[in-house]
Structures are given as structure tokens and as C-alpha cells.
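Changelog entry: the DnaD domain protein record was regenerated in this release. Current contents:
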Amino acid sequence: MAIYRQVQTSIWADNWVGSLSPEEKLVWIYVMTNSRTRQCGVYEFAMRYAVVDTGLTEQAIESAMEKFQTDRKLLLSKSNDEILIINWLKYNSARSPKVAAVIDKEIADIKTKEFADAVIDECHKLKYPIKKIKASEDTVSIPYAYSIDTGSQEEPEPEQQPEPEQQPTEEAGGVGADDLTDIFQAWENVWGTMSPLTQEKLRDWAKDFEHKTVIEAISRADANNKAFSYAEGILRRWDKSGIHTMAQVVLDDQKHEAAVQQRQYGNKPRKQLLTNQPAWADPNYKSKPAEPTDSATRAKLEAEMAKLRANREKRHEEQKKRREENAK
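Regenerated C-alpha cells:
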């Protein structure tokens, strides 16, 4: 199965990324997208592979990694050859129980205890449904400002923290950020980890539909055990019919139900058809007691029954003879 790593297109508008040299930009993209990355944001970094994959020298990669640490973008444990990408979990959602289960497994494989504790703390902070807890709650978690490998590098001078940027409350096209989060979570609850391409598709759909309508299409695909393409087909049909809100969806469902009944029962209302049903179909129907018959009528009926029995026995005998003749 293909593995995707999410890199938002807005990365190229980021001031920090814009300040990097071409080599540093390549290393940063490599750090986030190479085949050894994991869902938890901690993985073993192999310099020999990085040199081959990027085509850069070891010195150039080490210089870039040192800058990333100084700028508080990642942490490095040289003793375990592991790195932790800060804010990875913030931009790679683990709200889906399936994704959270993957992170639980990965945490057990993290060699650097401080990194494992940092991942657990961040997941709890973001309210991701992981089951792991820190081995010891009295352990002091690592500060993001420094590398784990404190013995091999000097502690950086504290610098003034920039004002945190306000997160936009709405996306382009008037889509609320919370609404998009609900849509993404609904998708991940059904199909697991979301690729960047799928995320862009959902953003586009959310621009044209009320967010609850997009979630409803996902729910209907899930109810029918279908893929996301099924939900997209529903959205395309609604869009073609001018349906973009849940109120319009409900009205469309009612019209569809009325059309189905029209095809089944014609112009007559269903209640009228039920009133024309035979008396014995009524749940409260009680059969009338049989009227007594006289002796002559009974004798006639018995004669008819005797004649029928005789004819039946005669047919059975004829069939038996034919079978015996065919068997010879």
C-alpha cells in the first residue's frame, strides 16, 4: 500500500522556509518525506541514505540539520540516530482511531525515551485517541528548544520568541476551519489515513457544500460499504440538482420516497389502497361459523370425495405400471 506524507502547498509562502538556502530546502523536504518517516514524527535518520537520496554531501546535510535544531524545527539524538520533527503531529492528524493505533505501535519502537514521552504528551494535548501513557509521570519532558544530544553540542542562547500567528478561522471560499476539521475526521473515521490529494478534494467540495452535507455523503458511502468515489458521486448528483445544504438533502429524500410510492401504487394514495383490501386481511377479522348441512348434502359430498379418491388411486396405479415398463 502506498504511504503518503502531507506537505501543504503553503510551505513555500512560509517565511522560515523562504530564508533557507536551496540545499537546506531540499534537506527539509527530505526530512519530512523520506521513506523512513513514521506517523508519530520520530524515526531513525540514516546519513548514508540521505547522501544518496538527496545527492548532497554529508557536510551539507549536517549543516542543514544543525540549523533546523537551532531554529527549533526538529530534535536530534545522535546516540540513537533518531530525530523528532517538532509540530509533526499538529499537521498530520491522528484523530482517526486507526491512525492512533499506528502511533501506539510506533511509540513502543522509539529508542529515545524523551522523544517517546514528547510524542505521548503532544498526542494528549491534541486529544488524539492513543492508549500509550508515559512510563513515569514524574519524568521531566524535554524542552523543544534543545537537542537531546546535549553532550555533543552547546546550549543555544535563548532568543526572543516571535508572536504566534493567529490561525485563520476560515479557509478560502468561506469554509470554517472547524468545519474542515469535522469533514477530515469523518473521512478518517471511515477510511483511515488521508492523503494530501484527498484533503484537497475535500477542501474543494467544502467550498460548494454545507460541511454537514459533505459529511452526509461520506456517511452514505460508509453505510453502503463503498469507497470515497461513491461519496463524490453523491456530491456530484446533488450539485447537478442544485442541492448544497442538509435542508435541501432532506427535501430531496422526501421527494424520492414520494416518487417510489407513486411508481408502486399509481395515483391512488397508499391509505386508500389499504382500505380496499379484502375483509380477511384485516387483523381484527373473525371468520363466520360454518352453517350446518343436512344429511342429503353430506351424502352427496361424501360421494364426490370417494370418486376423487378413486380417480387418484387409479392415476397412481397407471404411473406405477409405466415406471415398471420403462425399467425393463
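The longest strand covers residues 74-77.
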